[in-house]
Every structure is written in structure tokens, then in C-alpha cells.
Amino acid sequence: MILSHYIFGGIVLAILLIWLFGKLLFKKLGIEDIRVEADAPFVVTDRDEKSITLAKKLHFHNEGTSCATMMDALLRPQLPYEQYDGVEARGKAEREGEEREDDYFEAVILQKKGYVRHEDELNVYAILRLTARKGGTIEEALKEMAERNVDLGMDFIWMETGRRPWHYRKLRLAIGADEWKRIAGEKPQAK
What's the rounded Cα separation, in Å, for the pair 8 and 16? Predict the structure, then answer.
């Protein structure tokens, strides 16, 4: 009976020592720390009679001491038809300089802070496309959205991993009712 207590105590001690060693090792090696700057406005990048495309630049940078992998980014607009049914809202995420016809987001590595100049930084665009419904034009839809005080909330979601297990992160974006007037009068420009 006493021998089994010593064996059990030894196993618990070994587990605690392994856990402590792992914590110290990760502290020494470092972990990833992805930060996002989302202060850029939505700008019009494309417009025709039926639709408008908006883009918002999100600047990601790794402040950690270990590299990180960013993958599976997407923009999820939340404009249910119960709130406003004059437009269909679709979103996607796109890396700067890596435009794709499909909505696929190719994984990218963000190096640890200061590793190589600019490889610890990444620009990603949250792209929102609004298409007029019910036979209307996009101009009429934007005007009605401003009049009805439609707020369009969006979740920018991405998966990241590094020394820590993979996990999802989310950034909340929104276009308020007061911004629709500005967007309606804006001419398309390059991202």
C-alpha cells in the first residue's frame, strides 16, 4: 500500500516536472502574437448599375517571438433580409497582391517580429460586394439603406496557429447608416 503511494506520487511529480519544463521551453522559444490594425475606411473598388464592391485594408503584424501561420480567412456579412432585403451581401478575404477569382484564402506565414523586414507584416482586404435585388439599381438600394438607417455588421474570421494550437479569431467590422451616403457618392479607386 505504501509502495503504491510512492509510485503514484512519483508519477504525479514526473507529470508536473514535464509540464513545468514545457512552460519554460515555450517561454524561452516564444510564441506568436498576431495584431490587427483596422482603422482604414471601406473604399469603393468597383461599381456598376447593379452592384458595388467595397474593400477595407486590414494590416496584420506578428509582435511575437515565434512565427505564425494565418489561414482560412473570410468576411461574413450579417445583413438578413428581415433587416433589409434590397441587396444581397457577399464577402471574402484577399491577400494584397494575391487576387483570386474564387473565395479561397491561401495560408501565409508571418515571421517573428524583426526576422526579415516586412515578412512579419501582411495586408489583407475585407471585400464586400453588394448586389441590388428585386429589379432595382445599386444607387436606389444605397439611398434606401441610408434613409432606413441600415447598419451592416460583418465578422472577419481567420484561423491562426504557431506554437499554440490552431484557433479561430474574429474581428468585428461595421458600416453604419451614416456611411452609406459617403459610399453612394464615392467613385471607384484601386485597393
Answer: 12
